[in-house]
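BUG: 3D viewer hangs when loading the predicted structure for this chain

Environment: internal workstation, default settings.
Expected: structure renders.
Actual: progress bar stalls at 90%.

Input used:
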Amino acid sequence: MLIWDSESNQSLEDRYNGKVIIKPGLNHIRVLLDEIMRGPQARPMDMTSIIELDFELIQPVKPTYLYLDDIRLEK
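Structure tokens produced before the viewer hung:
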């Protein structure tokens, strides 16, 4: 999972880079907002200006569909 804010220069070091394991079926994923905020190495992420959230599948064994639903921020 990759997350950028409007100040990001799109480099690996200037974004949140999180890894999650997705299993077949329904998955519940929780990422703490503080963890996302500490994502960029040189500065805190501006949580009021998140511009992109990406999910990437790395070397799937077969063609795979990833359906995302009910994404929300919780405090």
